[in-house]
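User: Can you model how uracil sits in this protein?
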Amino acid sequence: MSVRIQRVSAIQKESLSMPEDKNLLQMNREDLRSLEDAISACRLCPLSQSRTLAVPGAGPAPARLMLVGEAPGREEDLSGKPFVGRAGRLLDAALEQAGLDRSEIFITSVIKCRPPNNRKPLKKETTSCLPYLEAQIKIVRPKVVCLLGNTAAAAVLGRQGIQALRGRIWQERFVVTYHPAAVLRNKNLMADFVSDLERLNSLQDK
Ligand code: URA
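Assistant: Here's the modeled complex, given as structure tokens:
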């Protein structure tokens, strides 16, 4: 896992090389579109055979804030858009309560194709898909990346245990909170979830 951490921090430190005749915004959009095309055509793991659509992610590039979930569910698989099902509606409500505008946030998940019956992603699926997230971080260049739930925290930070991971900044830009699906299952978590999102609001402006 330390290799993975090194890879993510390498992304943080690396700057995009840019031809002088292109402006940064245009580069970001073009890079993101090429990456989306690669994800949509990806055949690196067997989930590509069972998916309807891959779900690369959505949002602006650059963006100050990125949210990273676990994996697409049924509605995401059908629409190709992240967080549009029940968990997505809860996320929308929480973002609104926290004063965050979803249209300004880049939203994606660790793996881009739906696992059958919404099971947890397998290690080998995460390993094949993680380079796409790393490339997205490089292109979107978010100031803060919020990892939603244990799958995202384990994939990126190599750590699990939301209670212990919340409330700290990891490797200068990662924060961890609950996955919206966990909040759906236990509504008592909503107040803490909203307060974690509120904190993002101030971190992204620092
Ligand atoms: N859960 C996720 O982690 N990602 C989605 O896009 C939808 C639900």
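A couple of observations from the model: Residues 123-140 form the longest helix (18 residues). Confidence is low (pLDDT under 50) at residues 1-21.
User: Helpful, thanks.
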